[in-house]
Amino acid sequence: MSKEYDVVVIGAGPAGYVAAIRAAQLGMKVVCIDKWLNLDDKPSLGGTCLNAGCIPSKALLESSELYHRANHEFATHGLKVGDVEMDIAQMQKRKAGVVKELTGGIASLFKANGVESLAGSGQVVDSGEVKYTSHDGDEQTIKTENIIIASGSIPVELDIAPFDGELIVDSWGALEFDEVPKKVGVIGAGYIGVELGSVWSRLGAEVTLLEAVEDFMPIADRDVAKEALKTFKKQGLDIQLGARVTSAKTNKKSVRVEYTQGDENKSETFDRLIVAVGRRPNTANLCAKGAQVELDDKGFVDTDDFYRTSLPRVYAVGDVVGNPMLAHKGMEEGVTVAEILAGQKPHVNYDAIPSVVYTTPELAWVGKSEAQVKAAGIDYRVGQIPFAANGRAKALGQQGGFVKMIADAQTDEILGVHMIGPYVSELVQEMVVAMEYKASSEDIARIMHGHPTLSETVHEAALAVDGRPIHFPPPRKKK
Predict the structure, then answer these.
(1) What does pTM read for this prediction?
(2) Which are the catalytic amino acids?
(3) Looking at 163-278, which runs of residues are DSSP E strands?
(4) What is the pLDDT of residues 264-282, one digit of tens each?
(5) What is the pLDDT of residue 475?
(6) Residue 250 · residue 167 · CB < 8 Å
(7) Is-contact 166 253, C-beta < 8 A?
């Protein structure tokens, strides 16, 4: 059986489903093939992000944060609630409901835009040919003008700690616990590790994060990372840096983890072990033997500036083409390649991609860190203002953290903004827009911000770049 399309999209995660919708909006006949199966073996659109990553993790982060606040913060507001209990089953039911609504929403969007959806796997056979295999094993040849690979990524599995789905789990498994473990170990203290660790720590687990590198969150600005480490440790997370795991052995009910730290050999026993050491491109069986889609030395699909692979009329977007592995980056790439196919000239600004860690407090940044600016030999100025000086933050009872703005000393163009504090996941978006239009710190300083709002801290940081904050003492001038 053979069908013909303008575009076949392989993968219905953020990059894939967005590419499919945009291509259909531009008048193309589109089919999207996706092989995701949930734990009940039912197909579900949205990929890792909607089914087992971004969305369910944020649902659990919200539930666990409310539980923590009810137990530890409500009393300061005059709210007497007595003993608060967490119903894990209800928490998981709510999470599943949130996921179901959003994944079902993609199916509705496909229908509204005329995108055909096929559950199963897609394999690139040649430039204009894809082999589709349903979950039942039925095969079908699909002819197409263009192919967009958006097969995403999968968790990295360690040989020394293989997943068993029960005691040693990946990031998806860590979202499915039906009770709060007494002791949880996490290998990896990146954004996935600290988010998952935060969930179970707030719910009462004793959480230890084992991070192989000596620096905490090296992808973040050093001032933000230092503040985050101090805060997370104060919250009860046991973060061990320079801890290289050498083995993880399970028995019936626990996992014994051995690791080295400096010259010492150490061990810990956990009820559950979460492996969160990163993700790798999902390219297994993606291409038939004769299809020459080249991969780079790290296994990512190799593309040019227009997302073209080594095979004519075959494109790739999202996690499968490399870092940063962020849903919103993949979405923009999906839109871009669809518009390229329509003859438009879109672009993705990789210098203005926001990054967010959804802990409490949140971490967010866009642009270059201070270390990157310094390494590039750029003369720069910095403005940094704490949320302690912000009225809205004080009213919320969340005055920890700060906003740090870095600007070119000669042109005043904003080079990077780094934040840790309440709702900075939302605040950083103002700076993404500003940097997209190459705004200066003075531009932000001269824009009126509502009072009282958290965004005033961004405004003050811009003023501080020029040494003239209003609601915080300016830095002392060097004699």
Answers:
(1) 0.95
(2) 451
(3) 168-169, 183-187, 206-211, 238-241, 243-250, 255-261, 264-270, 272-275
(4) 999 999 999 999 999 999 9
(5) 74
(6) yes
(7) no
